Amino acid sequence: MNIESVNENTCIVYFGDQIGDESARLVKLATESIRRSMADVVIDLVPSYTSVLVSYDLERIDRLGVARRLRVAAEQVEDGANTGDTSRTVELPVYYGSEVGLDLDAVCDFSGLSAEEVIDIHSRQSYQVYAIGFAPGFAYLGSTDKRIAIPRKSTPRLKVPTGSVGIAGTQTAIYPSTTPGGWQIIGRTPQKMIDWDSESLALVQVGDQVRFRPIDRQEFLDLGGSLDES
Amino acid sequence: MSLEVVDAGMLALIQDTGRYGYQHIGVTTGGPMDEHAFLWANRLLNNELNAPQVEITFGKFSLLAHDDTWIAITGADLGARINDRAILPWQTHQVSRGDRIDFTAPVTGLRAYLAVSGGFRPALKLGSCATVTREGLGGLHGHGAKLARGDQLEFKPPEKVAKASVPQNEVPDYRQPLCLGVIPGYQYPHFSAVERMKFFSCDYEVSQNIDRMGYRLSGEAIHSDLSGIVSEGIAYGAIQVPSDGQPIVLMKDRQTIGGYPKIGCLSALDAGQLAQRGPGASVSFYLSDVADSEASRMLFNRRLQKGAAGISRN
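Structure tokens for the assembled complex are given below, as produced in the milestone run.
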């Protein structure tokens, strides 16, 4: 673990330098521990693949005090490492039809696999939520099977429809709202990823597991899915 | 009781100090681009420091007072007038029912703050009214919209306000060339001595590409030995250096995480001074450290608490 000052009321804690399950696990546990034990001084936390950015109230604590308490919070993570895995698995229904899987053909061409094989490979495993960012509720999930890893589109779409499920490299993600974006879209979920009126706001959190369940067109529509292009 | 927007101008946004506690799900903080000016406006009226205000970018914004109250204007001099009489920023002004408040065109700086006694009373979204248009959050009605003609900015009856002005030594001259302290951190060790020297000795220019998300600067290109990094949280004022070598300073509506190498970070007060500069302004950097930035902020907070001529203490 390495703590570095960023500015007068922010520091960043690194738990490694490689994307992977071990860093993700430490980030998740440390975020929970910091949230629990430092609520009196912490203003905001940004967990990501290997790090947590911590903003604090300078009127209550300075950089030295924060570093001291962050070390204690991280030690609790080490101690509590054997207390069992607290991560949840969130299952997301996905309609992989070509009318919403806008780049499914491109993924097939690139990988040399059939659509059925791509869908099977994408939905067979579960994924770790490594980071949330880019837009509210946009969760970076990893890692996909290398056979379906495909680079981002060279020209991003101006509008990726809400609920679109995409692949970029060995990562996969769901667009929580309609935004520009360059991920290769293979399907769409009817599930709301962010809901400003709900208690939890975002459906998934860093550290959760996500699994995709293929559904057909009718179930997609029954679950409230939209076939709109924007 | 309210002020009515009769001309929305280019960009007028409701802001409080920002939306905190939601960055872990990708929600940015928003908030005033220039904290120094924002906080003084509330202080002048003896408001809570977080009280909602209007951030006016570039001018051409007009209000009609439907009731009597006190206002404070700070930040940029955008040629403000009450009933066609020029008024100065960095002080309080009494307005009466039927008065018209106009911001015309920038004289110095880019962003003015208009506070009302007791603060405006917009809808809150996730605990804040900070307007982030990209996310559809905040603003008068909570949906991220900028202010529009016909909007009614409501406020409570004013409390014991007096004529007050910010001490002269607290009033910045936004026409001066800026030299900003950089706190090394993030990927600083990945910039070689030569690259650092270029960065700290060159004058950069504020480009045309500036908005509430980031300020793109142009000047001598600098490079790190990294092509990219594992995406990580980005603080207000962080200086990203993409592969073209031209620095981008990240501002209040920045995305929460990003993967470009960063040479360091500005303090919030320094980033706020940058936010008052428009395209063509000159910016340079010096190597600072976190202890200095911490001390400067604490001193600013004390001066703010102490107040100014005419302001009662909290």
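Chain A touches chain B at residues 4-10, 12, 17-19, 31, 43-53, 55, 58-59, 62-63, 131-138, 140, 177, 194, 196, 201-202, 205-206 (CB under 8 Å). The longest helix of chain A spans residues 21-37. Further analysis is deferred to the final report.
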